[in-house]
Design goal:
Helices cover 37% and strands 24% of the residues. It is α+β, with helices and mostly antiparallel strands. The radius of gyration is 19 Å and the shape is globular. The chain starts with a strand and ends with a strand.
Length: 276
């Protein structure tokens, strides 16, 4: 299996997209299974010749030459998803920042998020262009053509308060409540939840949990390898290590010790997969 990461080269795209990755595997390659965990970002994955089988908590990807390309959008999931790839895969994944995808859409984001795994075809020429781009052999050329296409579709996005709310949540310490945020921006909790669902695809409580989870991962890999989980829980303002354990079990299905012992972290902690 080949996995390649890229940062956007366009300054404009850097404001909205955290990274791209290309995932490739041949028909006769070894079966790959892993768990992926809840994200802060919105994830668009574009697959060439795929056949998807969706089960509860599991996605299997097979090859179907009769389908040129299919794309999915995932904005919200609260527990691990098992990914099963027994053979061929040719995938481009785009990790959009929490509000990033809105800048490329003519309709509200929630128009495209009816299900956890939503098929994503936002433009009349999308499948045609993605079919051509996924056929490109050179990884750098593939990403270049993808960036050019995304820049053609850029429409911008402005919101009276969500960008500032997200910045607050990403950069604040953990001593805040959703009510605190609503009060700061002189809006009701109901209004805040409504706008999150429309433009982010997850509610503020879910977002706060995901931000804290992802920050804990970054903190763990930044601490001394011999650190205790009490140190991590204190640094992340959990009540104690039991509170940390409870939060991690809810999101990952395992304790922090098991999670960090088995996790395969890539791209400076942006991707964290647990191979089975």
């Amino acid at each position: 299996m080949e996995l390649l990461f890229f940062k956007p080269q366009s300054t404009l795209l850097q404001n909205h997209i955290e990274y791209f990755y290309l995932l490739n595997k041949g028909d006769r390659s070894k079966n790959v299974r892993y768990y992926t965990f809840p994200q802060v970002n919105s994830i668009v994955s574009i697959n060439r010749n795929p056949r998807f089988i969706f089960e509860k908590g599991k996605l299997s990807v097979f090859r179907n030459r009769r389908i040129s390309v299919l794309s999915t959008l995932i904005c919200s999931y609260n527990s691990p998803i098992e990914i099963n790839i027994p053979g061929y895969i040719n995938e481009i994944t785009i990790s959009f920042k929490p509000l990033g995808l809105n800048a490329f859409l003519s309709k509200d984001l929630n128009t495209y998020t009816a299900n956890q795994f939503a098929y994503f075809n936002p433009y009349n020429d999308f499948n045609e262009k993605m079919t051509a781009i996924t056929a490109i052999k050179c990884p750098e050329e593939k990403i270049l053509r993808l960036e050019e296409y995304l820049l053609e579709k850029y429409v911008g996005f402005n919101h009276p308060f969500l960008q500032e709310v997200i910045e607050d949540m990403l950069n604040a310490d953990q001593h805040y409540s959703i009510r605190d945020i609503a009060t700061k921006y002189n809006i009701s909790r109901k209004t805040l939840y409504k706008h999150f669902e429309i433009h982010i695809g997850k509610n503020p409580t879910e977002m706060r949990k995901m931000i804290r989870f992802r920050q804990a991962i970054r903190e763990h890999f930044g601490l001394d390898p011999k650190h205790s989980f009490n140190e991590l829980s204190n640094k992340m303002d959990f009540f104690d290590s039991s509170h940390l354990n409870k939060e991690f079990r809810a999101i990952t299905g395992c304790t922090p010790r098991v999670f960090f012992n088995q996790i395969y972290s890539m791209n400076a902690g942006a991707i964290n997969w647990l191979f089975i």
